[in-house]
Amino acid sequence: MQTRGTVLLEETFYIFNKKKTVYRVKLTEKGLSLQKESNGNSKSETIQLDDIVGCRCMRRKRRKSESCVCRPMTPGRKSGLSVVEENSTEQDENDSSVYLYIYSYLLKKGRGVKSSTLKRDKMTITLRFRSFDHLEDNMREAQRWRVAIKYLVRNKPVPPAVLMPRDHLDQDYMAEIPNSGEDRRLLVFVNPKSGSGKAKEMFERRVVPLLIDAELPYDLHLTSGPNDARRFVRQRHDLTSTYSDIVIVSGDGLMFEVINGLLERPDWGEACQLGLGIIPGGSGNGLAKSVSFAQGEPYSQNPVLVSALNVVKGHKAPMDLIRVETKSLVPDSPSKILYSFLSIGWGLISDIDIESERLRSIGGQRFTIWSLARLVGLRTYRGRLSYSIAPGYRSAGNGPLLRRSTSETEAINNLSNGQNNGFNGNLRSQSCHEDLSAPLSLPSDRSPAPRMRLNSTASSISEEFSVLEYEIDGEVLGETAGPENINPNGSRLRLDSFYSAKSRSSAFYSVAASSYHSLTLPDDDQSPDAICMYGPASRLPALTQPVPSSWTVIDGDFVMVHANYQSHIGSDCYIAPDARPDDGVIWLAVIRAGATRSQLLQFLLGVSSGSHIHMPIVQMIPVTAFRLEPESVKSTGHITVDGELVDYGPIQAEVMPGMARVLTR
Ligand SMILES: Nc1ncnc2c1ncn2[C@@H]1O[C@H](COP(=O)(O)OP(=O)(O)OP(=O)(O)O)[C@@H](O)[C@H]1O
After folding, report:
1. Ligand 1, from 190, 191, 221: best to mutate by most atoms within 8 Å of Cβ?
2. Does 252 sit in the ligand 1 pocket, CB within 6 Å?
3. Does 500 contact ligand 1 (Cβ within 6 A)?
4. How far is CA 514 from the centre of its chain?
5. CA torsion angle for 650, 656, 661, 662 (degrees, to 10)?
6. For residue 26, what is the enclosing H or E element?
7. CB of 195 closer than 6 angstroms to any ligand 1 atom
């Protein structure tokens, strides 16, 4: 059995013009260990498997006839290595080397004034296999590493045949290497109209190269209009057999469509096992931010890259869905069922969201302008809020201030760290020890600590590697192996090269078996009436029935009730700091009538940092189910589910813990 840290493959590499420097490269179940030994000094770093997205075997590209192979390097010229895929017709037949490109994204500190910020940077490690005279032998060695890395990256044990010592291999070795088991295929929805309308270009330029590095096949569907994606996932019969994951390149609105489309399938249970990936392309990107935030990933530095890495790494983490029942205030209207992953709003925030639509053309500033407008014309709404407090929380008597007992705290800790731990447990466990009857306090740094190891050593070594990148080119152009590299029997000693290439040198290749066009579906043969919402049975009484007697009921006037199950409802709207995607809790943010305009302005300003939860006017109530019953049918207010407008009327919701799967690192 392979234990963690066991060395699976090991090679020694040299840099041609640094004869006293030796690079020992080991592949272990932790990652790629790089050790540099020079003049008795040794320096090492490990590229974690978590940070590796894929690897490919490449050949040197044939040079154009006019280029002189002996030309000296121009000082300062960054002449990168030109490589092509192993089966390309453009490969240089005179070079029997095989280049193994290992693509990783390392967490690094920024430089200068940005030294306190973390970001992910691409690093390509290149191992050049050229010990043997014959291409086939070099290819075999490089493939052995490639296959082993691909198994490890997918968290699968490396088959023993791949690790057999070279001497024990026969000619059929290559045939014995099994496929690295790429069992994923993505269905990608791109909304060309979302956000600023650049989602398609963004996908092509910034996401496709990552899918190529990871050799992840995908089918792309450009949405043609509202409900196109919803219809697609509802109707496509082979959805679950064809695809492992669905990726949304848009805002939260398209994710809402896809989730509800999945729940409109008779095989909804299976469909909910598909991984859901989100790459922020819209104006509301609450889920993308929340997922990365829950893992401590540096989202703000590069939202698209961090989110695309979640898709590529493809860990399916449980995510709560909320079953929502709505009913119009029009007498005898039927109730509707829908599923929500982000929030339900009544009052201030929903009004700003919906009414500012008319200012969409001015971008994100529409929210600021409409916030001011809504404060000037402040509205309150009369109605009833009823809720069932989440296990581990209880009422402290007067009003909805809550305090946990020790045993309840333990129960919540178990929930956070035990069965429901798709996300990093360090994020919220501290909140379980808070006394909610006291003013809620934010820790000094609310951001969760990064789970990943910082590659501080890597930054210094990588500087050196990027220099070597150029020297290697000079070496290959002008030199053959020197006398010290020839065995007495005439064959070449192992003389492989090892360097780092920066992201700019990566080429754009297509992923085999991907399709890049809008997929077609037969015409919609279902009338709206025939569409049925499936999903788990509700545990709540019908909306027309009274709530259970154990629930807390508040009658009164409200500025807003906003129910949140993700930490963020927009990338800069940190509304529920204690929420995690899979904690089984709905956080009600409640503001009662009586709050002044100045307090509400403070609230709106504080939401971006999460400091609003300190304010006495704001109550944060953890529940598993709730019901809202607005009093007046003639209201000017709005009720939204995941930012989408729904009928103004009674609405109730209950959490379905871990019902969906969201893609994370
Ligand atoms: N091709 C299209 N043209 C117009 N609308 C579309 C198209 N494809 C999808 N939509 C609709 O656009 C809506 C908004 O998309 P989404 O929320 O993903 O992006 P957004 O820019 O963040 O929008 P919002 O500001 O509403 O959050 C979706 O609900 C979907 O129904």
Report:
1. 191
2. yes
3. no
4. 21
5. 50
6. strand 18-28
7. yes
Pair of tokens at residue 538: 């509700």
Structure tokens at 525: 């043969």
Q: How many angstroms separate the CA atoms of 190 and 413, rounded?
A: 38
Residue pair 460/452 in contact (Cβ under 8 Å)? The answer is: no
**Which class for 331: exposed (0-12), middle (13-18), buried (19 or more C-beta within 10 A)?**
exposed
Neighbour tally for 91: CB within 10 Å: 18
Residue nearest to atom 2 of ligand 1 (CA): 225
Per-residue pLDDT tens digits for 325-381: 998 877 777 889 999 999 999 999 999 888 887 777 766 677 778 788 888 888 999
DSSP-based helix, strand, coil % in the chain, nearest 5: 30, 30, 40
Rounded to 5 degrees, what are φ and ψ at 601?
-65, -45
Report yes or no: 316 and 275 within 8 Å, Cβ to Cβ.
yes
Nearest to 118 by CA among 348, 297, 323: 297
Distance of CA 489 to the CA centre of its chain: 53
Whether the CB of 571 sits within 6 Å of ligand 1: no
Give the distance (Å) from ligand 1 centre to CA of residue 507: 32
363 lines ligand 1 (CB under 6 A): no
- 350 Cα to the center of ligand 1, angstroms: 17
Q: Is 345 in the pocket of ligand 1 (CB under 6 A)?
A: no
Q: Which of 200, 209, 217 is nearest to 305 (CA)?
A: 209
At residue 181, the pLDDT reads: 53
Residue 490 has pLDDT above 50, yes or no: no
Residue of the CA atom closest to atom 13 of ligand 1: 253
Nearest to 133 by CA among 499, 487, 498, 497: 487
Q: Which residue has the tokens 């269905």?
A: 187
Alpha carbon 508 to chain centroid, angstroms: 22
The helix (run of H) or strand (run of E) holding residue 106 is strand 98-109
Distance 253 CA to ligand 1 centre (A): 6
Mutate to test the pocket of ligand 1, among 189, 232, 254 (most ligand atoms within 8 A of CB): 254
Contact predicate 351/366, CB 8 Å: no
ipTM for this prediction: 0.96
Residue 252 is among the residues annotated as catalytic for this protein: yes
Which residue of 233, 250, 252, 285 sits with most ligand 1 atoms within 8 Å of its CB, as the best mutation to test the pocket?
250
Strand 644-646 and strand 639-641: the pairing is antiparallel
Q: Which ligand 1 atom sits nearest the alpha carbon of residue 223?
A: 8
The answer to whether the CB of 343 is under 6 A from ligand 1 is: no
Number of Cα atoms under 13 Å in the Cβ half of residue 210: 25
Between residues 588 and 511, which one has the greater pLDDT? 588
d(CA 297, ligand 1 centre) in Å: 26
Q: Which of 50, 228, 245, 252 is catalytic?
A: 252
- What is residue 257's three-state secondary structure? helix
- Antiparallel, parallel or unpaired: β 18-28 and 31-38: antiparallel
Counting atoms of ligand 1 from 1, which one is nearest the CA of 252? 17
Which residue blocks in 396-455 are alpha helix, DSSP H? 406-417
The alpha carbon of 603 and the centre of ligand 1 are apart by a number of angstroms equal to: 28
Residue that the structure tokens 């040197």 belong to: 60
Residue 271: closest CA among 240, 246, 245: 240
CA distances from 298 to 63, 86, 271, 565, 631 (A): 41, 35, 30, 21, 43
Q: Identify the helix (H) or strand (E) that includes residue 626.
A: strand 618-630
Contact by Cβ (8 Å): 662, 316 = yes
So what's the pLDDT on residue 235?
95
Is residue 640 within 8 Å of residue 353, measured between CB atoms? Answer: yes
For the CA of 222, the closest atom of ligand 1 is 1
Alpha carbon 562 to chain centroid, angstroms: 25
Q: What is the pLDDT of residue 494?
A: 30
